[in-house]
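Project standup — Tuesday

K.O.: blocked on the structure for the chain from last sprint. Re-posting the sequence here as requested.
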Amino acid sequence: MMEEQSFSYNAKAEVIEKINSRQKADACLMGMLCCCNVLSDREILFLTENRQVSEFFAKNAGRILEDEEAVTVTEAERKNGVTLFSLTVEDRGQRIFLLDYFGIDESRRLTEEYLPKEKFIPNLIGGIFLACGSVNNPEKKYHMEFVMPTLDLCNDLGLLLIDTYGIVPKHIERKNSQIVYIKESENIIDMLTLMGAGMAAIELMNVKIEKDMRNRINRAMNCENANLDKTMKAGERQAADIELIDSTMGLGALPDNLREIAELRYDNRDISLKELGAMMDPPISRSGANHRLARIAEIAEKIRKQKGQG
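H.V.: unblocked you, prediction finished:
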């Protein structure tokens, strides 16, 4: 499958780099074989656009078969400039040996009888990822998926993740392919860590932290802007009340405490009630400023009614 993001390519490189024993390599190759494009004693065909994945498959299949030339690799240049690697095991006896070695048949089922030891299951999952998995660049979106060859294998992988690691993936059918996918960033981090792609997991965590921080800042700014807008609208409405009072009965007719806040508000329409209260002499609380402006609003409303405007 096509490597859409360098993030996915780097994650696969990490998975391969962490395989440092025969048992890990066997478990990984088993995962890759399960997801071969064709798998039977008549034909084994594995397609990939990743050179490292191709080399890993050929090297380890050759090791098990004790024949470095057991896997035939051909390269084809696609129109988009990507190289497609086609890997085949030409000898029928070697195909049968390889299938028997892992206890795999055409059903490709991950039967408990033939699963590797639990400590090597992460490498099995890593092999499935190398063969048919991808993970998006987290800067764009959180998404990991496995394009599985059969629905049964799709279910086997899902149950393996749920029962062994508590990771609950989802399933969808797309263009006759069975897709196991994960969208939760925490689960993708767990999957990358599990398979050995620790640096990719850390990169995703850092992106998530930055995104969360940006989102918090944006929410705070939006809230602040909304409050500022609300304050300005209230200030304009209160200034209109004060203008009405001044043009009719005059501000001098107001009690001293109301006249003082009316004059302050008229000259400071865009400040908050708390800031307005602090400018009073002596200073008053936000609720005190709100109460006095409410009384001014009542006076203005009475004037409007008397003038037939209310």
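K.O.: great, moving the ticket to review. The domain at 6-196 is CATH 3.10.28.10 (Endonuclease I-creI). The beta strands are 38-39, 44-48, 71-77, 83-89, 133-135, 144-148, 170-174, 177-182.
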